[in-house]
Design a protein that fits this description.
Helix content is about 75%, strand content about 0%. By secondary structure, the protein is mostly helical. It is globular. The two termini are about 25 Å apart. About 55% of the residues are buried.
């Protein structure tokens, strides 16, 4: 055990505080999904605007993550963590009390902005608090379980709060959680930031955040507008151009927003790539299964949320009970590749669903395999991507990893939804007009099946990337000579 770890008897309480904050951020990505119809009716929200309840959060969160990570490096991880928590609580209260759609959209954007400060500071605090390999494996097992399973839990919590209280509690619930985490942060967190200073890379902020916002917006609009719409093509092109300029500037900036030396290590770069591919392949599951459970099988909101729980349970078991125990003596790429193969097998099982499928024999096995595979993957990815990063860069590295996850989720949802919609249309045309509910359901399920096969292909590619790029040893210090 390293001296730093041994000298802090409160480190496991610190993990609980970090985990609580991380869970809150992850839950808010999906907790309002099931509550959205109720909020729309209560606030008189037009159908064309309702997507902004989701998009406002993802735009601000995904677009400002790099800035949030750099703020953590400049002002200190603990201070950034506290600022993020306090701001998230205020934004949640504002959204819960919203009297109109505009206020709700603004509150969701504020939530995303403060989450962009909170998430990288939480991960970098975890990285600097746990340095002993075995303790680090356990801590990242918990973190990986929350990162992967929180989205499914958010659907359940959102369903429960909407059905038994009202939609506003999907936002109000964050206030007591954030206050508890704030108290815990003051008591248990220690900032091992090391020397601070430097200046904020303003051109980097404008180029990086602008590029990410443009990409996330373009992906979010591709579903309702189509890929050929100017409102989709223009933001995507602008995002690519801005991010290319961002990379060019980061090579030349004296104090870059995202030090590119972080990516020089092959294992770390492989972990980032694996995370991006895993989220592209995974996040279609939540979208398609939500429609499958409610529109095809007729599940109410709470039962829909409960139906997702095996994914979260599988992730928790895979991350905390399997990966965390094996990582100290198993090569990270073995766990990552194995996890992706398991998740791909789960997707193949889900591709065989029909309109008459039953939950336990037909749906449950696929969900468990997907959950176990994601748990086996996320935990070593987080550990590998953050180990060996210099202390002054941990916020930037954490923000970059969370950004990859966020962009992967947005891209995966849009791409897989486009594939599913196209397959549904082709099935309907090939089998004549879909006049009955059964015919519509069969066409929909066929579209989902094609998308699941595509997800399986992406996850198998992620397994190959992990196997070929992530070495047996841990990543070297960024900027130093890689280890053999």
């Amino acid at each position: 055990m390293t001296p730093a770890s041994a000298a802090d008897p409160k480190r496991w309480w610190a993990l609980a505080v970090i985990a609580l904050a991380q869970l809150m951020v992850i839950l808010d990505g999906t907790i309002v999904n099931i509550a959205l119809p109720s909020a729309q009716r209560a606030l008189g929200m037009p159908d064309a605007d309702r997507q902004w309840v989701i998009t406002a959060y993802t735009l601000a969160f995904g677009g400002l993550l790099l800035l949030g990570g750099r703020i953590a490096d400049l002002v200190g991880r603990k201070r950034a963590f506290v600022i993020g928590l306090a701001g998230f609580a205020v934004a949640s209260a504002l959204g819960g009390a919203a009297a109109g759609p505009g206020t709700l959209f603004a509150a969701r954007a504020l939530q995303g902005a403060f989450a962009a400060v909170l998430a990288p500071s939480a991960l970098s605090l975890l990285t600097t608090t746990f340095t002993d390999p075995r303790e680090r494996a356990k801590a990242f097992g918990v973190y990986g379980a929350l990162a992967g399973g929180g989205s499914g839990a958010g659907l359940l919590v959102g369903g429960l709060l909407t059905e038994y209280l009202n939609w506003r509690w999907c936002l109000y619930v964050n206030v007591p959680v954030a206050l508890a985490a704030l108290i815990g942060a003051q008591v248990f967190l220690r900032d091992r930031s090391g020397p601070r200073g430097g200046h904020l890379d303003v051109p980097g902020v404008l180029l990086g955040s602008g590029g990410l916002v443009a990409l996330v917006y373009g992906f979010s609009e591709a579903g309702p507008r189509g890929w050929t719409s100017p409102w989709v093509a223009a933001p995507l092109m602008a995002g690519v151009i801005l991010l290319a300029a961002f990379v060019w500037w980061q090579h030349r900036a004296a104090g870059p927003l995202l030090p590119l030396r972080i990516f020089r290590d092959r294992s770390r770069a492989g972990a980032f790539a694996t995370m991006g591919l895993a989220t592209i392949g995974m996040f279609g599951v939540f979208l398609f299964l939500t429609y499958y459970f409610q529109a095809v099988l007729g599940y109410p909101p709470v039962r829909t949320g409960l139906a997702f729980m095996p994914v979260s349970v599988g992730i928790v078991i895979g991350a905390t009970q399997i990966a965390a125990r094996l990582l100290p003596r198993t090569a990270p790429h073995t766990l990552m590749a194995s996890g992706m193969v398991l998740a791909a097998a789960g997707m193949v099982l889900l591709s065989r669903l029909t309109v008459h499928a039953q939950y336990v024999p037909h749906v449950l096995p696929g969900l468990l395999l997907v959950g176990l595979g994601m748990g086996l993957t996320f935990m070593p990815v987080y550990a590998t991507a953050t180990v060996g990063v210099p202390t002054q860069d941990t916020g930037a590295a954490s923000a970059a990893l969370t950004t990859v996850q966020q962009i992967g989720a947005s891209l995966g949802t849009v791409l897989l939804n486009t594939i599913a919609t196209g397959a549904t249309g082709r099935h309907s045309r090939a089998h004549g007009p879909a006049d009955s509910g059964t015919a519509l359901a069969e066409a929909m399920v066929h579209g989902f099946s094609v998308a699941y096969w595509c997800s399986a292909g992406v996850l198998l590619f992620a397994a190959l990337v992990a196997a070929l790029t992530v070495r047996r040893g841990k990543p070297s210090q960024a900027g130093s000579k890689p280890s053999a």
